[in-house]
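Session log. Operator J.P. requested a structure for one protein chain; no other inputs attached. Running the standard single-chain path with token output.
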Amino acid sequence: MGRPLRTLALMDHDRLGLREYVAIGAAGVAILFALFYFAPTASSGSDPLAIRTGVPVTAAVPTEAASPTPTPRPAAALADPGRWFIRHYSGQDPASSVVDGEAFFPSLNISYDGAPYPGLRDNGWSLTATSETEVAEGRYTFTLLLDGDVRVKVADQEPEAGADTTRPRELTVTFDHPGGKLRVEITGVDRNGPLAVRWK
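Structure written below.
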């Protein structure tokens, strides 16, 4: 009778060991699940799909709408200011030449095919024409008809008068003025051919 009891005890001991292994395995699986779902990377607000795939979650950056380009205000046509003070010089550089004649003219309408009068050498003289007028604050525009080497300065700005001085051309000037006195200055040099300046 003693031997069967020992055999039964050994069988019971073997069955208890199997249950313990199963319990240990279940505990290990539970620990793995806990580590997976409660890890720091799985914090509140994260995307579970991003965590499982390892793809970082990036927030969309809002884009600012482009500012509309301001529309320039319309320019008022500036009439010929009149009362032009015109000086003729004996050389091609007014700054270093002798004044040979001067006078006031009611409008800007200069046109010479040669020297304006005896005493000036053809293709070797120059002139300046200046006029001042009062204007209100605003944006203005005017056009000159030019022929020859002519430079224009208005409101302390000197617009490009065109590189080709061998043929007639138009120069349109548009500028802003704060209001008050407006001064227009024109310099013409007789080099070869006619010299003309007209207010259109």
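Operator note: Residues 2-37 form the longest helix (36 residues).
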